[in-house]
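In the current project phase, we have settled on a layout for protein records. One protein thus recorded is set out beneath this paragraph:
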Amino acid sequence: MFDRIRIISSELVLGSVVVAMTILTALSGYDGAMADSKQNEYEVMAQKELTNATADYLTANQMIVYDYQLFDGAYTADSEEKAQYYIDSYSEQLSASITASPDDPFNDAYYESIYADAQALFDTADKNFGIAAQFDERGDALQLVMLTSALGLALVAWASLLSVDSQIRVAFSLIGICLMVYTIYLYVMTPAAPQV
């Protein structure tokens, strides 16, 4: 049996496999590094957006408390002039809500509008975390490609150092070629980089 497949351990075949595996190892290593770099970039952007969203959310909470105080102050003011001072200090959101719904100014529309900026930043952060996760998945898949190609490369390189008559040379060559085919399959099946 080994005599029939000994051709796979010829210098030409082994040299070609070494070249192919070296290219696959380098390519997957480079692509993996680029995916990891993009993952870090989008995670940093997402963290920044999340921090800004949290700050805007806290600012909105303070504005809500302030609007309640102003609304109560206008309601309990002992003169029209004092009441107007409080009314003039309302946030844009409260003024719009009173115009739209005078009987229920602190309705859902008020809260949605006052939290709109924070929510938009939260949504952007979630989107960037999602993109980072896709780059992470791609990077992990490319690490597996690099591992299998390096393993196949090592086996084929070792086989090329063994005697031409050695059965281990044939076995290592066969395993290395199988790993090359599997590596190509893994590389083709690697998730594509997200479109951003």
Observations:
- The radius of gyration is 32 Å.
- The mean pLDDT is 93.
- The chain is about 80% helix and 0% strand.
